[in-house]
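Support request from a user on the community tier.

User writes: "When I paste my structure tokens into the form, the page sometimes reloads and wipes my input. The last time it worked, I copied everything first. Here is what I submitted, just in case something in the input itself triggers the reload:"
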């Protein structure tokens, strides 16, 4: 009996093997979001408290996720994507070792289902893997279709991470902190928790302008900005501030720059320098050879390394040349 993969080709689809450059990570939309200061009357630069308003937590958990996807078939001009998303939480206790305490994965195909020929759709459905519908209005040139597929994969990853993070909150110890790679504001439970932090490495959203923007982007190493309330597309209210991990001079304005999210509460303002102090200590060991090492806390890097090691190998870009093979 033919496999579903043979059946999809027999129905008219053409095999492909293309990993788009943006398929290995998520993106942040560029927007002018705006902010309301909740500390100081203008954006100020604060040194990190060397003593720490709070001591580094004896127990802390860290969450990250990955996404992998590639175009595996074309049905005419309709790309069919195979995707894999995964998320994990690793907890660190007194012996400083990180151990997995939660993990979830999902594999699926993504395509504009209504645009597929009946035989191709039937073969995909027979694969036993979920089939996620991509909006048909994205069809036409390959660029918009691939962008729609990327959004579908990213949405699946965000949903996976949110579900795992909210489930982990239920097992959080009384003094345990929870650091999430990404925003808290997608989840009411995360946004409202007193010991949850979001660390954001990308900076597509613009919260300030003029002198305030300059002050935030030229923040010295081991300093933070005033705490502010982000505006824009945040679903749930949080407080936020910028934190510089490494000197940017001689590199780039965004080098070593994080944005931190925490609960919208006066206690967050009080603790911001102390929290930033122990986050800065999470720079070590340095997260090389990752190209984002300047903004990547080592425990988050550890979670991502764990997930990458368990991801399907065939969804990574092939190191082999894509040039046609010479005829023998």
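"...and here is what came back when it finally went through:"
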């Amino acid at each position: 009996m033919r496999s579903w993969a043979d059946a999809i080709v027999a129905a008219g689809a053409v095999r492909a093997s293309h990993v788009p450059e943006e398929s290995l990570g998520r993106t942040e939309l560029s927007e002018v979001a705006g902010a309301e200061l909740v500390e100081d009357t203008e954006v100020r630069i604060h040194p990190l408290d060397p003593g720490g308003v709070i001591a580094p937590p004896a127990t802390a958990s860290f969450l990250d996720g990955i996404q992998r996807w590639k175009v595996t078939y074309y049905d005419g001009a309709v790309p069919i994507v195979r995707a894999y998303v995964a998320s994990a939480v690793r907890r660190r206790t007194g012996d400083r070792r990180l151990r997995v305490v939660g993990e979830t994965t999902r594999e699926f195909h993504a395509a504009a289902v209504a645009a597929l020929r009946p035989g191709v759709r039937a073969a995909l459905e027979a694969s036993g893997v979920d089939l996620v519908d991509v909006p048909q209005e994205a069809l036409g040139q390959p660029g918009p279709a691939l962008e729609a597929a990327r959004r579908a994969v990213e949405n699946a990853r965000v949903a996976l991470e949110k579900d795992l993070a909210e489930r982990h909150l239920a097992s959080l110890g009384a003094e345990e902190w929870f650091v999430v790679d990404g925003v808290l504001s997608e989840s009411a439970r995360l946004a409202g928790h007193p010991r949850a932090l979001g660390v954001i490495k990308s900076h597509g959203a613009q919260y300030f302008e003029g002198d305030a923007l300059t002050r935030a982007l030229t923040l010295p190493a081991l300093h933070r900005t005033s705490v502010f309330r982000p505006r824009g597309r945040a679903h749930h209210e949080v407080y936020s501030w910028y934190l510089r991990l490494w000197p940017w001079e001689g590199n780039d304005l965004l080098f070593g720059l994080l944005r931190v999210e925490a609960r919208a509460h006066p206690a967050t303002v009080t603790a911001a320098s102390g929290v930033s102090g122990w986050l800065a200590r999470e720079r070590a060991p340095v997260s090389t050879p990752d190209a984002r090492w300047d903004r990547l806390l080592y425990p988050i890097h550890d979670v991502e390394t764990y997930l990458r090691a368990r991801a399907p190998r065939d969804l990574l870009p092939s190191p082999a040349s894509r040039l046609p093979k010479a005829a023998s």
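Agent notes: The reload is a front-end session timeout and is unrelated to the input. The first strand starts at residue 14 and ends at 18. Residues 14-313 form one domain. Escalated to web team.
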